[in-house]
């Protein structure tokens, strides 16, 4: 009881509600039990207007379930959710179904919640604007969308509703960094409230103003954004540890007294014995709650590779009239951890497969070093067969043993390191969630001795504890790693260099993580490729609507460029003045200043060229009216 009291006190101290804000939703004493175990009990919080709350907790704690309850598509065992009169709610779930919709416009116009507030159909103009904001053609048929396109369509439908409360479950999954940063701008401009479940730490740091923590079946709230979460969580856990230590001391004293008690005082002894049993039960309860499972991800390098791992010289690759990679030279040496970033469709996976010699370049050559053992987890997770059970996936040759880096292990023991319980081993792989499939793919790949790990989007759907375990493993791994990822905090934690496209087939390599790349190249990373329009009925093509004005995305970009160009001009003028000063050579940063001046000029030239292109299109469209 002491730990529970301390946790409640900490929650009250750090999460006092502001009376100046307007409460849109009040979750009261929410309870849910799955099987025999309560998932959460007494969950309670208030969501205020203007609040953007990061919703965090261990994998399987019940975050998505609670969010589905707020959307009205799941019911609790007890408690209630009370909304301010007239409040509307929009929900973007993890999984999206497009069944029954002929076009993305039809999908985006449909209500995104089963009940809660207004369910009126969304106007076509609002649906179109939201879809175009995410680079999607409203007339496109939803069949055949990529994972990133499906996620953008789901977000567009939720945003088109212009609801008072926005519920987002893993909104950044499968999005590239360009789309994630656009989503950050959209969310921070929302006037209503937002509740967000995400594993993307940098995203949560940038958008959240409050934090909800589903911990040990209880819900705690911090009235600060996710950037303050670690410090807050550490304080709560340290207080719980002190309370548990106090309970252990009291328990030892009671056990000692009971062993030496006078038997004649049976009634008093019986009372103290009951107290001892209650204390033991409380200790078991606390330890059960605090024993959150974490993945024990390890990888063995295997035999040492040659110093030179991959040497690519002047490689190019094009498909039709579109050049993905042009004249790229890249040298990867033993111990490098290379992060590959870029917009969806910019050629990241193509580059990986060229470097691994799984595809041939149109020009140039790739040489791989000697003694390479490659473990490859591709984006589609082809390493796993959805038609078998987990047990069969771990032991395709039969039996109950799996060879893990040359050592025989029982399948249940190895599976447990990746958070799979014995009861799951006979389940089909097809029944796994996205995060579980990702963990399974990692488990199978890391069982093999490898000195070159190739991970294409390894962070998708992983909870933060598993992310931390993966990050720790990669940071200490003494082999070589190639990583495709859109998780900026993850890249900052593990990458020694970043390789990214700048557009037109040109790629650049920058030492350090994402923050270093962003600081050096800013807005120059290549944008998402233009989507080709597709008619709603391929058998009966329809004429595309005549465009007479710029899209919302182009208008927004033009405004950004209008603001950016004067800043770059001012910076260039300052740098030129600094270099012209008499002591420029003795100041110690001449080379750095000169390099920044050259980069700033290139950025201004690129911005001016992009702005001019948009304005020319604006004039051409105006002439058609």
Question: What can you tell me about this protein's structure?
Answer:
The chain is an alpha/beta fold and 625 residues long. The protein folds into three domains: 17-222, P-loop containing nucleotide triphosphate hydrolases (Rossmann fold); 308-524, 3-Layer(aba) Sandwich (Rossmann fold); 552-624, Helix Hairpins, CATH 1.10.287. It has 18 helices and 20 strands. The strands form five sheets. It has a six-stranded mixed sheet, with helices on both faces. A six-stranded mixed sheet has the order 14-17-18-12-19-20, sandwiched between helices. It has a three-stranded antiparallel sheet with strand order 2-1-4, with no helix packed on it. Strand 10 (308-319) and strand 11 form a beta hairpin. Helix 1 runs antiparallel to helix 8 (229-259), helix 8 (229-259) runs antiparallel to helix 9 and helix 17 (552-580) runs antiparallel to helix 18 (590-624). The radius of gyration is 28 Å and the shape is globular. The protein starts with a helix and ends with a helix.
Number of continuous helical runs: 18
* Distance, first to last CA: 73 Å
Report the principal-axis shape. globular
From the alpha-carbon coordinates, what is the Rg to the nearest angstrom? 28 Å
Q: In percent terms, what proportion of residues is strand?
A: 15-25%
Structural class: alpha/beta
Characterize the main sheet.
6 strands, mixed
